[in-house]
Structures are given as C-alpha cells and as structure tokens.
Specification:
Blueprint (H helix, E strand, L loop, with lengths): L2 H15 L12 H10 L5 H14 L3 H5 L3 H8 L5 H19 L7 H4 L7 H12 L8 H10 L8 H11 L5 H14 L18 H6 L1
Helix pairs in contact: 2-8, 5-6, 9-10, 9-11
Length: 212
C-alpha cells in the first residue's frame, strides 16, 4: 500500500464515521477555550471540564482575569496537574491579551506564540477549532497514532509530525483530522493496548499489518 492510498482510505473512513468531530473541552468563547487548552496540558479533558465552569463564571473575559492574583486563581484550578505553573500561565496570558490585543485572542500563530502558556500545539488548537484554519495541533495522541497507523514514518518531534500530516492531508480536512486522530487515540488506538478488533481502520494500519 502506498502512503497516498493509506491516507486516502484512513481519511475517507474518518469522514464517514465522524463527519463533525469536535473538541471535548467545554468553552463558550475563544478566551475560555484558550484557558481550557492551557489547563489541559498533561491533564484530562474530563478533569478540565469539571473545574472550568466556576473559573469561567469568575473570569468572563481577559480583563477580569488579568486583574486577579495567583492565590485567587489557584483555588479554582488546584485539582489540575501543575496548578502553580498553570496559574501563572493563565494570569500571564490574560495580561498579555489585555496589554497587546485589546483583550481578544489573536487569530494568527505569530501573535498566539507571544502569549504565556501558549506553545505551538495550543496555538494550532486555537486556529483550527475557533477559526477552522488548516492548522494541525500535535499532542501525544496525534503523535502516537500517526506513526502507528503509518501516516508518518520515523517522526522524531511533534513539529515533524505536524509537517508530514499537513503535507499529505487536504487543507479542508486538516481541522477535522486533528480531532479524528485525538479521538481515535483516546478511545481506540490507546497507548498501551490498542483496540484493534474494534478499529475501523485496521485494514490500512501499518502496525496492525505487522502484529495481526
């Protein structure tokens, strides 16, 4: 099977099985999605969704959060991983938004990357989820699943995975493929024990062909 054939068949299956995939993080504005994505680093979406409703209510916009302090914010997010670091990131992000962008989340990667707590993955999540841009956020699921299926070969870094996927996936499908790969990795192609018997793309998977 050629790489082009594998991409075509895998993407066609996802498009039929999950025509409208969405992030599992709950949010009601770009600002609140930014907070949720920062909080989700090395933490489950389920945990983040538990703590964000009171956080969002207390801080409806960047200005209110920017005016707060570490002790106050920490109390809202103390049950997530690395709460001290994330407290500083949330406050830093809000203050950067107020000082540089009028309190609004910018819609381009260069500006997004100037925000505390925002790396390339977070920036690409914002671009693809909010603005439906052809941006591929690579988390641990996307990195693992892409290599296991055979969409990438020998990618050593998330950036290499991102570049390979963007090169081979049609632009209009890139925002969808981000969710497809995350959800597939979260529920089917799990890190320790992939559920191959219940996988709809096993027939085109490089790993399955070697282990079946």
């Amino acid at each position: 099977m050629t790489k082009k054939e594998r991409y075509s068949r895998v993407l066609d299956w996802f498009a039929e099985a999950m025509p409208e995939p969405k992030t599992e993080l709950h949010y009601d504005s770009p600002f609140h999605l930014l907070l949720a994505v920062i909080l989700s680093a090395q933490c489950t979406d389920k945990r983040v969704n538990i703590i964000t409703p009171p956080l969002f209510e207390a801080f409806p916009d960047a200005a209110t959060l920017a005016a707060s302090d570490e002790a106050t914010v920490y109390e809202y997010i103390k049950s997530v991983s690395y709460p001290n670091n994330k407290t500083r990131s949330l406050l830093g992000a809000a203050r950067r938004l107020v000082e540089a962008f009028g309190g609004e989340v910018p819609d381009n990667i260069d500006d997004l990357l100037t925000i505390p707590g925002v790396g390339r993955k977070t920036a690409n999540v914002m671009l693809s989820v909010v603005w439906k841009r052809a941006a591929m956020a690579v988390d641990t699921h996307v990195f693992r699943v892409s290599e296991r299926i055979g969409l990438t070969t020998g990618a050593k870094t998330p950036r290499q995975t991102e570049e390979e996927l963007v090169k081979n996936i049609p632009q209009e499908q890139i925002p969808l493929a981000h969710h497809w790969l995350i959800l597939h990795g979260r529920y089917v192609c799990k890190a320790r024990r992939p559920d191959c018997p219940n996988c709809g793309i096993a027939d085109w998977c490089r790993w399955y062909s070697k282990h079946s």
